[in-house]
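The methods section describes the discrete structure representation at length, but only in general terms. An entry of this sort, consisting of the sequence and the corresponding backbone structure tokens, reads as follows:
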Amino acid sequence: MKKNILVAGATGHLGLMICKALVSQGANVVALVRRESDTEKIQSLSQLGAMVIEVDFSKDSEITKACLGVDCVVSALAGLAEVIIDTQKALLDGAITAGVKRFIPSDFCTDYQPLTPGESRNFDLRRAFKGYIDEKDIRPTSIFNGAFADILKYNTPILNLKNKSVAYWGDKANWKLDFTTMENTAAFTALAALDDETPRDLHIASFQISPRILKEGVKAITGQDFSLQKLSDLDEFAANIKKQRLENPSGEQELYAKWQQAQYMYSMFTTQHPKLDNQNYGEIEWTSEGEYLNSFLK
């Protein structure tokens, strides 16, 4: 019998990919979207074969109705506290009322659990929701994918194509960073949603690569010898992030304020996956660092 999987945040880039991956696995997909969602994105979901349900997330009865008969809810919602905490709580409560057994929250990021609370605002929001869901009568599974590999294209300090540099903090030139492509994340999430026996936490990475090895990889592909730079000690980096945040209070209303982006960088150099669960589903073809770098450096 086909399983019924509900995806919230289905009009987002990751949400749409998860829906595609679920459809490819033969699942019945319910795409939960806001009434004000982009009509073209809704049409794309319908063309996939997903059942699109528009809801008002402030109305518990609408969420509960959409969740009836669903085996697992996948949240790909993105936002600040009103989304990650408030909307996800409403989604979770509706799922529980409807009798849904499993829930995958929007924890598609570095595993924030070993990190000190307060080091990352966006991770703190997820930590707060984790405290809520872990007290409920439902089986949650968080999927931690490290950083999305796409950030390597965006001229962050980790790989700056304009300045031809690879940077790190502290003594972390050989520190392995966890990167996962969005396609790999979506494929793994779909299979986890269809698996009744998933553990509480799952850790994945398409590839793990240090700044030093990244520099060597870029040279092998482009022939260019990027500089390898230490930007500062980690304590100095953390202090600078706090200063940036204090000086930019408007950033509290921005999902990716500059200081929040710096908090992501800091987390990448202070925690890493203890082990990988990539092989839980052997059919996934994981993208290697060489393949990924080739995709945009050549």
Summary: The mean pLDDT is 96. The first strand starts at residue 4 and ends at 8. The CA atoms of residues 194 and 254 lie 34 Å apart.
